[in-house]
């Protein structure tokens, strides 16, 4: 579904992404792991159009999407979330979800003056859809809560809910577990699996929690120093000596006996 070929992103002399090539197959939950500074988030930012690549290509279902802006990718069904949630703090959780779909009649001045009936009808439909999303995520009780009052984990669930308000094809989740307690992380994981199995979402997930990665993701791609270091199942990756060395600075063969 997504193919990245020989991708580079340089910041002056620093090569944040240094010739990375990888594929994300349709229908998978692909994990992307690596030590801090490996280039994972920069790779996400280039794929999702927030940063232009220095060189290389990104294709989606065979179409070259290299360098397209986020709004264009949004309409193609490519969405991403962030390490720090971006909510409209003063609006309710339901209203945050209702804001997502584009092309609403209320966005046009003419309709705002003369199409109030149509706007009201659209808003009722969006509110119903938002409530269905909140029910799916098991946070219906937060529908009328100000989004700024949510916990970190609840905000991550809200971000996931936003992807459900449009026709998402692939979603890039950046450290969905950061600052989230274990109970809510399990809820998020359950929602990701259900979206994958029941609605056909494809996911690519950056996460440092290997239990979470092992539960959800297959395959797992490992980055180090801007390059793809390894790819395989979670169990294979955790036994890969090159991966252990990238994380810990020493390979298995150099470990002192206990």
Automatic annotation (TrEMBL):
UniProt keyword annotations, A-Z: ATP-binding, Nucleotide-binding, Transport
Pfam (any one): ABC_tran
UniProt keyword annotation of Transport present: yes
Signal peptide (from-to): none
Entry keyword ATP-binding: yes
Gene3D superfamilies: P-loop containing nucleotide triphosphate hydrolases
CDD domains registered for this protein in UniProt: ABC_Mj1267_LivG_branched
PANTHER family: CONSERVED COMPONENT OF ABC TRANSPORTER FOR NATURAL AMINO ACIDS (PTHR45772:SF9), CONSERVED COMPONENT OF ABC TRANSPORTER FOR NATURAL AMINO ACIDS-RELATED (PTHR45772)
Protein name from the UniProt record: Amino acid/amide ABC transporter ATP-binding protein 1, HAAT family
Naturally occurring in which organism (per UniProt): Wenxinia marina DSM 24838
């Amino acid at each position: 579904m997504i193919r990245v070929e020989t991708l580079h992103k340089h910041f002056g002399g620093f090569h944040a992404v240094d010739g990375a090539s990888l594929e994300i197959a349709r229908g998978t939950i692909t994990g992307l792991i690596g030590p801090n500074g490996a280039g994972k988030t920069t790779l996400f930012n280039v794929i999702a159009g927030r940063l232009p690549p220095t060189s290389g290509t990104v294709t989606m279902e065979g179409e070259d999407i290299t360098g397209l802006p986020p709004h264009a990718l949004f309409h193609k069904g490519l969405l991403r979330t962030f390490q720090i949630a971006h909510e409209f703090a003063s609006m309710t959780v339901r209203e945050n979800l209702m804001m997502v779909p584009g092309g609403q009649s209320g966005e046009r001045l003419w309709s705002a003056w003369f199409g109030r009936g149509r706007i009201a009808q659209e808003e009722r439909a969006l509110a119903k859809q938002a409530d269905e999303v909140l029910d799916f995520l098991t946070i219906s009780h937060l529908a009328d809560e100000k989004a700024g009052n949510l916990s970190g984990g609840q905000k991550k669930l809200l971000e996931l809910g936003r992807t459900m308000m449009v026709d998402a094809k692939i979603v890039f989740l950046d450290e969905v577990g950061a600052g989230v307690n274990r109970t809510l992380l399990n809820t998020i994981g359950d929602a990701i699996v259900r979206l994958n199995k029941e609605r056909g979402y494809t996911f690519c997930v950056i996460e440092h929690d290997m239990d979470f990665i092992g539960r959800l993701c297959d395959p797992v791609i490992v980055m180090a120093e801007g390059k793809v270091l390894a790819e395989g199942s979670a169990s294979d990756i955790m036994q890969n000596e090159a991966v252990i060395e990238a994380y810990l600075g020493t390979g298995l063969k150099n470990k002192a006996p206990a």
